[in-house]
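Running co-folding for Fe4 H S5.
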Amino acid sequence: MKCVRCKKQAEVELKSHNAAFCRDCFLYFFENQVLKAIKSFRMFTKKDKILVAVSGGKDSLTLWNVLLDLGYNADGLFVHLGIEGFSDIAKGKVERFAKERNAKLIVVNLKDEGIPIPEVKKKTRRVVCSLCGQIKRYYFNMVGLKEGYDVLATGHNLDDEVSRLFSNVLHWKMEYLVDQSPVLPSEEGLLKKVKPLCRVTEYETSVYAFFKGLDFVDIECPYSKGATFTMYKKHLNQIEFSSPGTKIDFYQGFLKNLKPILEKREEKIKNRCKICGYPTFSDVCSVCRLKGYT
Ligand code: Q46
Ligand code: ZN
């Protein structure tokens, strides 16, 4: 198999793009897909201060690496969850990356905030992952606003987006479908949020991270259950295998055809938390409630 760009021996075959690439041309292709997403969805420009939410995993470190290579002004934010045998390892990987790339890293430690995830887990009967997700989003937003960033970038890839879309459609979760977008504009109290990896698959991201020699955390969080999304990803990959290109068509089709209709009927959250000002459905947001302010 030959590289479609330079005719050298190909190392990667991408059926959905009807293409095969050598190492250099694959990296060029990957960066180009990210650039295409950034530009077509007007995510940010070289003038913007970008905050990248980094967990130490493959996707977020890939995102940070690509943005730095493309010359964007991108700093990292790591939220230390206080999970034994996991959070320190993840922090080590992120710190090492930041040092090697000479990039700025901000660290928030949930122990200092009084809400480390193992304590939160003890206090709640809910699935801890949904609270953990809310807490992370809360700090990404708060720190981003406080430190004067223009936009928050997360490492969600096409498979994350498609499996989420699939799940939201299967269960007709309209309130989540409205918010499913590669770009969420800023509003009062909310930083603009973007997903520059929305055009690249999990496989392509893994290949990129491997070719670039990125050292990321490859152990799972001990609280991770992830079964539903993993199951959807598996089924979607089977469909993709017999019909290459389905994933990106499904996602782009949603953004083009259904999203505009949903946006028209969207009801905005009007409430703000009376303690910290974060947008919320009730009087006090869930993080302030966890901190015991009610
Ligand atoms: S870190 Fe937090 Fe994940 Fe661990 S507790 Fe669940 S949500 S699994 S991405
Ligand atoms: Zn090539």
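Result summary
Residues 34-263 form a domain with the Rossmann fold fold (CATH 3.40.50.620).
The mean pLDDT is 93.
Job closed.
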